Amino acid sequence: MSRYPQQVVAYFHRPVCSGGTMLQGEAGSVEQGAWIAIAADCEAGQLKNVGFHAFACPHIIAACHWAVEVLEGAPVQALQDIQLDKLQQEFEIPVEKAGKLLILKDAFTSCYAAAGSVT
Amino acid sequence: MSRYPQQVVAYFHRPVCSGGTMLQGEAGSVEQGAWIAIAADCEAGQLKNVGFHAFACPHIIAACHWAVEVLEGAPVQALQDIQLDKLQQEFEIPVEKAGKLLILKDAFTSCYAAAGSVT
Amino acid sequence: MTDDLKETVYLDYAATTPVDPRVRDCMVMCLEQSEGFGNPASSTHVYGEQAAVVIRQAAIDVATLINASPDELVWTSGATESDNLAVLGAAHFKAMKGRHIVTVVTEHKAVLESCAQLEQEGFTVTYLRPDGTGLISAKDLAAALRPDTTLVSVMHANNETGVVQDIGAIGSVCRQHDVLLHVDAAQSIGKLPVDVIAQQIDLLSFNAHKACGPKGVGALYLNRERIRRIEPLLYGGGQQRGIRPGTLAVHQIAGMGEALRILGDEMEAEASRVSCLRDRLWQGIGQLPGVVLNGHPEQRLCSILNVSVAGVEGESLQFALDGLAVSSGSACNSSSGEPSYVLRSLGLSDQLAEASIRFSLGRFTTEADIDQAIKLFTRALAYLQALSCGASMKVNG
Amino acid sequence: MTDDLKETVYLDYAATTPVDPRVRDCMVMCLEQSEGFGNPASSTHVYGEQAAVVIRQAAIDVATLINASPDELVWTSGATESDNLAVLGAAHFKAMKGRHIVTVVTEHKAVLESCAQLEQEGFTVTYLRPDGTGLISAKDLAAALRPDTTLVSVMHANNETGVVQDIGAIGSVCRQHDVLLHVDAAQSIGKLPVDVIAQQIDLLSFNAHKACGPKGVGALYLNRERIRRIEPLLYGGGQQRGIRPGTLAVHQIAGMGEALRILGDEMEAEASRVSCLRDRLWQGIGQLPGVVLNGHPEQRLCSILNVSVAGVEGESLQFALDGLAVSSGSACNSSSGEPSYVLRSLGLSDQLAEASIRFSLGRFTTEADIDQAIKLFTRALAYLQALSCGASMKVNG
Ligand SMILES: Cc1ncc(COP(=O)(O)O)c(C=O)c1O
Ligand SMILES: Cc1ncc(COP(=O)(O)O)c(C=O)c1O
Ligand code: FES
Ligand code: FES
Hints:
The complex is a heterotetramer, with 2 copies of chain A (119 residues) and 2 copies of chain C (397 residues).
Chain A lengths: L5 H7 L10 E7 L4 E10 L2 E10 L2 H14 L12 H7 L8 H20 L1
Antiparallel strand pairs in A: 1-2, 2-3
Helix pairs in contact in A: 1-2
Chain C lengths: L2 H5 L1 E2 L10 H11 L14 H21 L6 E4 L2 H15 L6 E5 L4 H12 L3 E5 L9 H7 L4 E5 L13 H10 L3 E5 L18 E5 L10 E5 L27 H36 L5 E3 L10 E6 L4 H7 L3 E2 L1 E2 L12 H5 L4 H5 L1 E5 L6 H22 L9
Parallel strand pairs in C: 1-11, 3-4, 3-5, 5-6, 6-7
Antiparallel strand pairs in C: 2-8, 7-8, 9-10, 10-13, 12-13
Helix pairs in contact in C: 2-8, 3-8, 4-5, 6-7, 8-12
């Protein structure tokens, strides 16, 4: 469907991966229109089994798939380095919907906070 | 053209016959939207060479052709016996246009008046 | 047909329908140079006359289907125009008598926005609310009528849920109170019997393109015993008794006539075929987790199945149904961004209203289409539900 | 083709035209089930998307012909609606600025009746009178403008006489006075170059069916620099930025696009071919006794020849031209019964206005058609002139 960019189409339909159990964080709610939970493991400061659950629109689901993909194997602090403008560009997220990206950001941040308490 | 009855179509395109020279009468004018001149000869009280000229609409022209046809050979007084309701029926003349028939009637009447002065 | 189209099952008949090949052929004939391509207003020559004959036959075909007389029809550019002409035209015409209108919150925008315009002009509009199944009651309607009420506008079948109002009962309330009844039958025409006499309808709006006819043509029925004239929306060359001027689109009107003639012949058999398919669809998806039916379970069109899915996000649901051409309560770039006002009025939460899918079936829908739809819908739901993992539940940590 | 049609030469292109086979094919494609029959508003699936692509291409084709941008077009049901939307919509929108409109007595009824409606609402309308050739002068227009004038509506080419106004000059007067200019180009589109930028046109109405396209579809151009919005005539689902809601008639719009695309390609060659035919016709009938040309001898469309015949009755002239499909200034059963207001305004007597014939030629007119027309016209005149024998002369007795 042409109203969604190719990147959204490419990243929407990835296999569901719930992620590890060590690090977990979430943000948003169904009422807010988007809820995202991030989960991963951490081995020697590196992220493993990065996964997510989401109640969210296609742009955000695609962005989640993309983000967990790039985070796999990255250092833990990468969880808080997710750059919203990059995601917005990559998935051509309409400006008026950009608010939803903040929820995504919050979910990763909350996951990183969990890392603080684990390590 | 279906908006004109068959009788009008049949009687509109008859050959032009100007009529005789003995009896002549006319009525109406271009400004009034119809002008009719009737002319005929009279032999032994019978109409001969009945003809007409007209500036008039199709219904009236057809009615003139029909009237002169039925008058040919008729007694002179037939000139004033032209029955408008018969013509109106025969040619399905719309009521709102019936005024034009009066001009036709007047033309025959004036022709009959000429007969009075001739005979 | 492009591959995209070939791969996509069309279940969006309530948005628009393919044109029946018989209708197409009839239209094409009117587009032939060697046929009566004339302007029906050109009464002075055969080209115009033949066009007028075509229009006349179409009027007969259309009038027959709704039990009206051919002269009670006004041709329009579609149901939007018919609705506007009915509501604005009747309200303006009757403005001396009163300036109160009654309608329902679940009407089509063409009616609601016309009413909003009337409010701007100083009219008062009462908006009835349906119950949780989408129905309004004749009693509520009667209670809403005032001495200055001139017009009631209630649609026959709702375009989102397919819920069918009891127009006969509504019509008799209106007659008792000597109020005009306008009915938007864009969705019901040819699917349900419409009888303007029996149902006591004064104004009826409908179009061709929801009924396997062409887009861009519709009609308004005006009960000539009850309303002599309405205020026109357009002014011009005096065509259609000045109620709706403009050169008549002969091929369009011919197409509408043929489309409605076919419906008259085939409606009954087709309605039962289509409702079987709809039931098959419901059997296939109704038992999936979270799926609920929207609107009254019986009082509805044979052709529409509107469902919501709990715990799934609306846009993603629509997106995941890529291989299905259906309508949904939600759309990222849609101008409004609001979830369906129709579903909200039935009491659905925003989430359920957004995660709604309208399947609408029609003449060319096959069992294979339905089975494919069930397959795709089941798969989409499984994916999204796995993804959202119950959604409202917290992550177990 | 019936025998009646076969025997009748069609010279009534200004009333409506046959649909070009290329246009028909393009429309038929949109009517095919296997093609993009979708609703262009259904943005969530490929059927809708393909329909939107078709609409977009048509907008480009149409915009190109008038040197506009595709987003400056609003699709309508024809020139009547475009005229109404332009005149009523712009006048209403600008009502805060002023309530004075200027137009011309020889405009089409769609403009004149819209103006009459505005007068009902308290607007003031100045009606300019053309000179004996049908032209208005930019100077007269300038003199008619007032501080509260918001809109000028002048047609490009007149539908009865074919007389062409100098829109460029009129446009520049309007710009100087910061007044909107609406131009009804229903007759000129594709026959004369129309350039909304060069001619400084703010609103342009036209349709497809005068240009070998389908009936029932038209467009309004809105100069987006000069007028942001107009008041709609119809309210509904928000299509076309709310200016003109209703499901877009894809096949109709595609047909209009194709028709205007063809015109862009062929206009020049076709205009010279048609004006040769028209000149041939005039050579054949112009020297017959009593025949006069109506309207400006040069400033007119290539395709229209309007003549009057002195001393012959109008309805009978029309009737005697049975084998010719032409328009006349007179008709027995016509609802008005009034002779043409356009011809009367040029100073013609009732008799001449009624005994007028508009020959209008087009794409499929051949030399043989013209020769047949000359023959039939000559014969009809001879018969009627013999019958009326000079008419106004008394019978010599
Ligand atoms: C109930 C209802 N009324 C009115 C309309 C408007 O019809 P149209 O698209 O022909 O203007 C529609 C369809 O869009 C409809 O479903
Ligand atoms: C100059 C002019 N304006 C407007 C119209 C109205 O066009 P339509 O028949 O498409 O409504 C016509 C033709 O009838 C016309 O010739
Ligand atoms: S689908 Fe969510 S921002 Fe577009
Ligand atoms: S043509 Fe004269 S009355 Fe009809």
